[in-house]
Each structure stands twice: as C-alpha cells, then as structure tokens.
Design goal:
Blueprint lengths: L1 H28 L2 H11 L4 H4 L1 H50 L2 H28 L6 H27 L3 H8 L4 H13 L2 H20 L28 H22 L1 H7 L4 H4 L2 H19 L6 H21 L2 H9 L1 H5 L2 H10 L6 H10 L3 H16 L8 H13 L12
Helix pairs in contact: 1-5, 1-6, 2-6, 2-8, 4-5, 4-9, 4-18, 4-19, 5-6, 5-18, 6-13, 6-17, 10-17, 10-18, 10-19, 10-20, 13-15, 14-15, 14-17, 14-20
Length: 425
C-alpha cells in the first residue's frame, strides 16, 4: 500500500498536474492560427504584418529562456511553474486594453508576455517530465502529455473562432461596402469580441497557478554524476561542451519552425487556395488531430516496439514525404498533406528532449533553457515562409520544410551520438 501511495505521489500525480499544464500550453499556443486572420481583419494588416503574431509569441522563448533557467535555480521547478502561469495571466490581461483601443502593438505585447510565461513554464515542466521516470520511456511520457497539448490545440481555434470569427466571410464582404466611419465602428466591435474569452483565460491561468503552488509536487534534485562521460573524462565546464545538446537545439529550432508553419499557416494556405474561411478555420484542428494520432502511436510503440531514435528517423522521413505531397498536389488534397505534418511532427519534440538532455547533470537547467530557446524557430521560419509565399506563392513556400526535416534526420542518425567537438579518426 505504501509503495502504491509513493508511486502516486512521486509519478502519477505529477503527471496529472503536468498534463493539465500541457493542456494550457496547447490551448494558448494554437490560438495563434485564428488570431492571425482575426487581427489581420480587425487591425487592417498586410500579410507580412500578420506574421508578427507568431514572431512576438515565439521570440519570447529566445529572449526569456536563459533568465527562466536562472529563476528556476532560485525558485525550483514547482514555484517556477506557478510564476510562469501568473506571467501568462498578465499577457492575457493585456489583450483587454489592446482590444478596446484596437492597437496591434498592444496585442503583440500581450503575446510576448504570454510567450514569456510559457518559456518559464516549459523550461520547468519539460525536464521535470524527463527526470521523474526512466530515461528510455521519457518520449512515451512526453507523448502522453503531448496528447493533452494537442487535444487542447484542436479545440482552441474552433472555440475562439466561434466567438470572434464565426461570420468572417460575410463580415469581410460587408466591409467593402461601408464608408470610413461605419468601417471603424464595425472593426472596433470586431476587436471587442476577443475581450470575454481572454478574461476567462486570465481567470483560469490564475487558478492554475494557485493550484500548482498548493499541489504536493515533489521537487527534483539534479545530480552532477552524469557530468562525467562513460570513459571517465573530467567533468565538463561549459554547456557548450555538449555537442549533442547544441545539435539538438538546432534540430528543435527547425522542428518548431516546421510545426508552426504547419499549424498556424494552414488557414491562410486554405484562403490562398480560395477555400472559404468557414471551412478553412478548422484546418489548424486537422493538424492537431494528426499530431494526437502520432502521440498515440508513440505511447503505444515506445519503447517496447521502437526506440526514441527510430521514431525520430521515421518522423523526419515522413515530414519530407508530406512536404513533397503538399507541393505537388492541388486543392484540398494539398491541404491534407499539410495537415499530415502533424503526424510527422508529433514524436520529434518528445524524442529530441531526452536525447539532448542525456548526461547534462547539473547543467540540465541551462540545457533545458537552450532547448526552449530553439522555439524561436517558430518566430523566424514562418517569416521566411511568408517571404517565400509573397515571392513564389504559398504552395511553393512549403519547400522550406525539406531542409528542416533533413537536419532532424541527421540528428536522429548521427547528431545525438556526438559527445565531443574533437574530430575522431
């Protein structure tokens, strides 16, 4: 009985609580797919300006990841998660004056603050999940949590679209016939639609922060023993002395860029193909559903049938296949191939984390922060996609996915094994 209680307290309960946090991650993150067309209409933005929605949100990870690691050393994982939730609540609150004034810069400020909170939250929660159980099943645990994340991601755009863009096609057409004064009134009313949903999110985030603080989560102590290599070399003095981590950061950069392009750009891609918004608004959810399928496969197959590295190899190959399918097919078939990126992407994050964090010992907080900084791929690569879209069309812009998956494949084949920057004969 005592063993059962200990298992619940030390493993099952933390997984339940972290699962709830991953649900929050997914819900907040994948709202961007709807916020892009919403803010483009409400704030009268160009396509390039609209891409700054993802830029403001994801660049926060680069700016704030290392400060997050420093804060975690002071607060510990548990209190760090609480602070992260409270910071996110500040960001959602900023949406209220942004909507009242219909000021795009304020919306971006709110998104940056939300990204800052998520940077802290993810810097704490991802290594926490990696550490609380056996390393060989870490990808399986992260896959379970990924289901929570992407289930929320599937729901979020549909829920927000219902409240703020349920009449988008009619609304856009009606704007064309309005005089300037009427247009301003209608756009102000459209901007105000976002206030109530974000008040609810603020309330939920504050409650979650209080809940995490009161929850009996065990604090994880990192060990310095793993800093020594298998052949007995001296402890490494710098985080840069771990090539498998640095290459993992680069692989995650490309992965997150590919994931954001798949999930957040697919609605705009549907519009590029002249698919009505009422249909296209569900496309982000398609991506999330295929990701959930991928996570379920991960939970079922890892580590009993395939290991984390094999899952990473298969994911990278599928990504390249789906990219070619999106480029060389037409219409709704092409959209389906873009949605299938979710299947290819699902196991990349959970596979890279344990491979990259292996053997870091007391460097694990900093290593986690560097991996979180890789989320900046979601800020920069969509801008590159947007540039290519303007130059060559949205469909041809998906060529950018090929080098992303090629590097991920390299990491799965060789990168994770590189333990020294010294060339070996």
């Amino acid at each position: 009985m005592s063993t059962s209680k200990s298992s619940f307290k030390n493993f099952i309960l933390p997984m339940i609580i972290i699962g709830a946090l991953f649900f929050i991650f997914g819900f907040v993150t994948w709202l961007n797919g709807i916020l892009i067309p919403y803010l483009q209409i409400a704030c009268e933005l160009t396509d390039f300006q609209a891409m700054f929605v993802t830029f403001a949100f994801y660049i926060a990870y680069t700016v704030m990841a290392l400060p997050s690691a420093w804060l975690l050393k002071k607060t510990g994982f548990k209190n760090g998660m609480m602070v992260g939730l409270f910071v996110m609540a500040v960001g959602t609150t900023v949406f209220i004056p942004a909507a009242i004034t219909r000021t795009f810069e304020l919306f971006l400020t709110g998104l940056f603050i939300m990204g800052t909170g998520l940077a802290l939250l993810q810097t704490a929660s991802n290594p926490y999940v990696t550490i609380i159980g056996p390393k060989e099943s870490a990808a399986r645990r992260i896959s379970i949590l990924g289901i929570c994340n992407k289930f929320a991601g599937a729901m979020a755009p549909l829920i927000l679209a219902y409240y703020i863009l349920n009449d988008a096609d009619v609304f856009v057409q009606s704007l064309k016939t309005m005089d300037a004064a009427s247009r301003i009134v209608e756009l102000d009313a459209l901007a105000a639609r976002v206030i109530n949903p974000y008040i609810v999110m603020t309330f939920v985030l504050v409650l979650m922060g209080i809940g995490v603080r009161m929850a009996p989560l065990p604090e994880i102590e990192t060990s310095e023993e793993e800093e020594q290599t298998a052949n007995g070399e001296e402890k490494k003095k710098s985080i840069m002395a771990f090539p498998h981590l640095i290459l993992g950061v680069i692989a995650l950069f490309f992965y997150v860029g590919a994931e954001v392009i798949a999930g957040d750009m697919i609605i705009k891609y549907g519009q590029f193909l002249n698919i009505e918004f009422d249909t296209a608004k569900a496309f982000t959810s398609y991506v999330m559903v295929t990701m959930v399928v991928g996570y379920l496969l991960g939970v079922t197959l890892i580590p009993k049938v395939i290991d984390q590295r094999t899952a990473l190899k298969v994911s990278a190959i599928l990504g390249m296949v789906f990219a070619l399918g999106a480029i060389f097919t037409t219409g709704f078939t092409s959209v389906i191939f873009v949605a299938l990126f979710g299947l290819a992407n699902a196991l990349v994050w959970p596979a890279i984390w344990p491979l990259a964090l292996s053997g870091l010992g007391s460097f694990i907080n900093t290593g986690s922060a560097l991996l979180i900084m890789a989320i900046s791929g979601g800020a920069l690569l969509p801008l590159a996609w947007g540039y290519l879209s303007d130059m060559f069309g949205s469909q041809q812009a998906y060529w950018i996915m090929i080098p992303c998956y090629m590097f991920i494949l390299f990491y799965a084949l060789k990168g994770y094994k590189i333990k020294s920057w010294k060339l070996t004969k």
